[in-house]
């Protein structure tokens, strides 16, 4: 867990330019989350998103990057991403995606993004100070395997067992990171993944490929430990809105889905009706809370 | 890319095009390919217009003699003008 400080003052409620979702909740404290995934930047894409990202300090408290930031996962492409996100004036929290692994150098890609100031998560978390509250983001890339009733099992050939075990371990590390944020007293917690935790946000994708787009194990981890929002990418033909079985809102922020440089969400920080700061009390893989 | 064998049947050209779209040079896994009569239809969203032109060029190479129809959009890069309240 990385703690960022010092705290910043409550964001101004007036005079925000484009992207401000307004303040219908009055003076209620909120965290303004900007998020995008699947930007797939190649070496020829420098400057593509930077103009929009430069508006972020006026409309968001954090930018989440939900993986597939590069086209082939090369260091040269990671440097292009770094140029888009460096010194934006808001914290940047990222997970990698499958494209970012394609050149077999995810550590180097992560290093380039970290050098640009991003918090690159894989089974860990970061705590951000927002308006006097703590906002936690737990992140993993995640992996695939499918959804309840139509999922791969950890059985049979070593290759099959390794495939499913990869997802299970990823989900377990997400649960551990979310649990750590709860114990740290975060007012809002966000689960950030590349692969999808639910099938809802895959609507529009061919059903036959759903098992390659995500896994229910990620949703089970999120429901077991609790979160206020789950953000993912990967499903270009999917839809933005979904929900886990435990009631956690899920948003697919793949750029082809949101059709903007980022999407904006406002989460309450005062334990309002949508807040889920504690675990769901599920009995199962993660025990009883 | 001459190392690719010619498909036995035109039906397999759909799989061949998707395979080549996923390869190193393109890495476009989000573009869908369908046969529609004597034409091939490409759908999806890509980051730039240059990327879209590359994909259409590849499709014409894999499907010689077929009409290539494209509904490939370029992803929006503007900041949003509104957000969602999750109260």
TrEMBL record, chain A:
Keyword terms, alphabetized: Hydrolase, Metal-binding
Domain Calcineurin-like phosphoesterase: 32-236
GO CC terms, sorted: membrane
Disordered as annotated region, ranges: 1-28
Compositional bias of kind Low complexity: 14-28
Domain of life according to the entry: Bacteria
GO molecular function, one term: metal ion binding
InterPro entries for the chain: Calcineurin-like_PHP, Metallo-depent_PP-like, Metallophosphoesterase_sf, UCP008292
UniProt record, GO biological process: lipid A biosynthetic process
Pfam name, any one: Metallophos
Protein name stated in the entry: Metallophosphoesterase
Organism listed in the record: Streptomyces filamentosus
From TrEMBL, chain B:
Domain (BON) ranges: 15-62
Pfam families reported in the protein's UniProt record: BON (PF04972)
InterPro entries hit by this protein: BON_dom
Origin: domain of life: Bacteria
Protein name: BON domain-containing protein
Protein species of origin: Streptomyces filamentosus
